[in-house]
Amino acid sequence: MPRRRKTPLSKTTIHRVGVFQPLNQSFPSTPNHSSQSLMNQPLLTDDLDRQFETASITEMDESSCLRNELSYFFLSSLERWKQSGDISYTMVVQFLKLVIVTSQLLLFGSLSSTRISYGERAELSFKHMYLLDWDPQYETLPYPPSTGIYSVYSREQLYSSVGFALREFNATELTSLNGYSFTEAGRSVRVCTAQFEPSAASLSDSDAVKVCRNLDLVNISKSALIDGDHTKRLLDSRGLSVDFARFQSLSLYFSLNSPPIHHTDWDMSVECFQFDIEITFDNSGQTGQVMVRLQSSVLEILCSAQHSGESGASSIQSFPGVSGTAPVLRRVVHLVVDLMAFNVALVSLGLCIASISHAVRLWKRTRHFFAAHYGMQLTGVFFEFVNPWLFLVLKSDALIIAGSISKLVHNRNILEAYRELSYLLGLGTLLVWISVLRYAEFSSQTHLLLRTIKRSVPGLLRFCACALILYFAFVLSAWVILGPFNVKFRTFTSSLECLFSLINGDDMYVTFSIIDRTKGLGIFLFSRIFLYTFITLFIYAVLNIFVTIIFEAYEDVKDNDDDDKHSPLWHFISQNKPPRLSVETQVDDCGMARANSRCETPEPAAPSALSRQHSPAPPEAPPAATSCARHDDKAECTGHGC
């Protein structure tokens, strides 16, 4: 097949041709004119078309360089790897961070859930041991309550309950099934009373006078706590008299040590804990109902610590199979994983900041180029350059770094900072998993899902702004009108939650049945009309409109998937794409594109006015040359016999 002669391009010669190079060769260096294929490409507008007529070779080089750089910048990580073989280290770090952070959360969650469950079961056993007449019915969920709140209603019940708690604590080592032991040989109990000032105008906590005394039960006879009267005389003798006209609360504080706990999980560790127990008789409401609460906090201690028993010197070492050392293996594993999570989050944070910095510089450079060459202010494209996903990655990295540092600090006792760690690590891992969705754009279906969510958010926010006004109107009315007759509407928060549960279809019949005819015909009829109206309006109208907005966004995205690519920026970038030839193309050693087709010699193209003024006439092409031009994304072969 005859070949076209490779005509060198003069320094001042401008041909109306596009410049294309493969991305793995063109970015980021300036295009090499001697190795480029000459193919016609579409321009942006008529104005830009006229500017290219009079453009200098330097401007063409700058335009081509920026176009190639933008094309490479907007490629996905997978496309970059396919075209240029470049591996996205950011993507590798993100997936590595996902694995490490998830492992960190699983270790933390398994450890904390085991300890929290152990602490809850131990607290339940303490309630059975130290609370007088405790019943398993009090252990049910708050709603629906099978019984009332555990409380005392007379002075005799109050002192009897205090004496019962002190007696049972004194006999813990003899009665406990778990083998709890005292932390002190004296079996000390701290008793505190809080009473309002006689002249206080308001009954607030700041006006209460608190008096505390330590009672060593070893030095107190059992007969001193045998009943309520003896307990009252004991408290009065220690300066803990209660004036029930000013009585706010009475609290008992004591501690116990657990026996060695043998875990059966992966590390087979042995742990020991200290329980700080608080029993509170709360009369802050001054209604005659003194509510009784028992709370316990768990603190991990070394199993080599001495536990004082009846002899005052019994040791944990007396338990068989206990080495007296801390679970070293578990701590080492947690330490290694926490350090890895900290380091990978720090690297991810640095890469993310570098990506944002590079994107901002390229955005400024592109705006300046469009303003200088085309007189166009490129607006509304900032988030085309700076991906919003990067800010999500920044937040997740900050949370993971803070959580890892906090976990390293509290490595010996994670329960001390359980709440802070759960927030930091839980939210950090949540954001890490969500940020990985950015790579789901490789799939058309998942990309469609993300675009649907993005498109529907503005409409949903506008709709929810109106729906929430209507919802809070119903909440306020239900709280004020139905609250005195229905426990589910007793507070504003419970009213908010109850109406939301009704939208989901929960406990409808119970909500209706609580208010019956015995509460009055007026409130009975009003509750029915109110609930029927709310349920009908929100379930059949509001929810359906909510779903319709999402469906419309989905249809809009599916039908107009490429609308975002019609901006001047994307028109400019699209000039760098090669023509879609219908014939097979190859590239020879000099980088010139040739077509394996049946085309014959074309007529030589007339040079432009600018090239006639500044350069000699180009040499004539040999008679066997071929030419392919691109018109409207179609390859057209010109020449004799085409």
Automatic annotation (TrEMBL):
Mucolipin extracytosolic domain location: 116-299
Region described as Disordered: 596-632
Domain Polycystin cation channel PKD1/PKD2 span(s) in chain numbering: 422-557
Subcellular location(s) per record: Cell membrane; Endosome membrane
The keyword RNA-binding appears for this protein: no
Bilayer topology term: Multi-pass membrane protein
Species of the source: Mesocestoides corti (Flatworm)
Pfam families (alphabetical): MCLN_ECD, PKD_channel
InterPro entries: MCLN_ECD (IPR049134), Mucolipin (IPR039031), PKD1_2_channel (IPR013122)
Disulfide bond in keyword set: yes
Transmembrane segments: 339-360, 421-440, 460-482, 529-551
Reactions catalysed, as given in the entry: Ca(2+)(in) = Ca(2+)(out)
Keywords tagged on the record: Cell membrane, Disulfide bond, Endosome, Ion channel, Ion transport, Membrane, Transmembrane, Transmembrane helix, Transport
Listed name of the protein: PKD_channel domain-containing protein
Domain of life of the source: Eukaryota
Lineage: Eukaryota, Metazoa, Spiralia, Lophotrochozoa, Platyhelminthes
GO molecular function: NAADP-sensitive calcium-release channel activity
